[in-house]
Amino acid sequence: MLALKLAYRNLIGAGLRTWLIVFVLSLSFVVIIWHKGMLDGWDAQATTDLIAWEYGGGQLWNKNYDPFDPFTLEESHSKIPDAFKKHIKSGNITPILITQGTIYPEGRMQSILIKGIDKNQDILKIPTDKFLIEDGFIPAVIGTKMAKSNDFKIGDNVMLRWRDVNGTFDATNIKITGIFKTNAPTVDNSQIWIPIESLQEMMKGKNEATIFVQKEPMESMQTENWIYKSQKFLLTDITELIKMKSVGGAVFYGILLLLALLAIFDTQILSIFRRQKEIGTYVAMGMTKSQVVGLFTVEGAFHSVLALIMGAIYGIPFLSWQAKTGITMPMEGDDYGLPMAEIMYPKYGVSLVITTILIVMIATTIVSYWPSRKISKMKPTEALRGKVQ
User: Fold this and answer.
1) By C-alpha distance, which of 322, 275, 267, 269 is closest to 30?
2) How far from each other are the two terminal CA atoms of the chain, in whole angstroms?
3) What's the CA gap between 38 and 128, in Å, rounded?
4) CB count, 10 Å around CB of 168?
5) What 8-state DSSP symbol labels residue 373?
6) Residue 11: helix, strand or coil by DSSP?
7) Residue 241: which residues within 8 A CB-CB, separation 6 or more?
8) What are the pLDDT tens digits along the chain (389 aa)?
9) What is the DSSP string of 304-315?
10) The whole model's pTM is what?
11) Would the CA dihedral through 7, 13, 14, 17 be positive or negative?
């Protein structure tokens, strides 16, 4: 208790120098929590959107399917196993058939992916209820990115060309019956969704599928031809991206924290040099050298306590405001293929706050103790005379 009182009195007595260090240290608290909160918020939003729009509870891939190699699409579909049909009927899984195609908007030729999906499915948020058959045209739904890049509107007829399982090219008109907004660019960019029955008929691949999306994880459905892919596997890309961004951010707030710790270290060195008589007096009054080292360590570490209080004064209102209003992103994430919402909301967890506080306080204590070890080597008599040691 005595050490805390002396530490507080000495720090307040140092005036502006103390408050400058405390402000920079408090800024480290707030910036670390804010930055990590933004990344955690992005991670949560992207995970939620990708599961809702594309991954579901997990997927079963045809053994030849490789989403990064479009040349495998011709060979990556096969008959739906009889054992899966009861799960399709009960709504536990939904089949998706995928093939390449070409459209000709405004006289241009554009390669796309044609995806056939069950119009009665409710696992993904793809608006299959918009599959309204009119005038004999095949109904199709597309994302806003696809619609914007090709100037498509609801009701437009689009010429579509594809190749069936026998390698024969064919073409027909489809009608845009719905346009959906999504934060998952992997179900939007250069893609057209149509009823799976129509695509199976177009490809002459009756009762075939490329992947199955599960409502809940069911690894037991894996067979020799259908390979199970868990949510964790499917979310690997976004998880790795968030980790990479975290490392980049750590460099930034690491520099900020280093500046504050350097100032504390410098202050401790200067304090020990200028207060040698005071140190000698403490020893002469009966304090051991370890107790004096502890006193100076507490004094240095007390910067983090004051920084925590100062950071709470302006940080809590700021972080609360950010959590409520979010940040409007200056560009659309799907321009870069990222599952990023227009407004990003940070997510602050209790573990994040506690971890940040512990890291900063432990680092401050270590930096304060380091120069204070010099006290244990001082001779009290020479310290009382103010002789430089």
Assistant:
1) 322
2) 29
3) 33
4) 9
5) G
6) helix
7) 338
8) 666 777 777 777 777 877 888 888 888 888 888 888 888 898 889 999 999 999 999 999 999 999 888 888 888 999 999 999 999 999 999 999 999 999 998 888 899 999 999 999 999 999 999 887 667 789 999 999 899 889 999 999 999 999 988 888 999 999 999 999 998 888 998 999 999 999 999 999 889 999 999 999 988 889 999 999 999 999 998 888 888 877 777 787 778 778 777 877 877 777 777 777 777 777 777 778 788 888 888 887 888 888 889 989 999 999 999 889 988 876 665 666 677 778 889 888 888 788 888 888 888 888 888 777 777 666 766 666 666 55
9) HHHHHHHHHHHH
10) 0.78
11) positive
Amino acid code (one letter) for 327: I
Antiparallel, parallel or unpaired: β 110-117 and 169-180:
unpaired
Phi and psi at 208, nearest 5°, equal -110, 160
The three-class DSSP label of residue 164 is: coil
CA-CA-CA-CA dihedral for 376, 381, 387, 389, to nearest 10: -20
| Distances 70 to 149, 197, 213 between C-alpha atoms, Å | 21, 22, 19
Amino acid present at 116: G
From 258, 346, 357, 350, select the one nearest 34 (Cα to Cα). Answer: 346
Query: How far is the C-alpha of 271 from the C-alpha of 277, rounded, in Å?
Result: 11
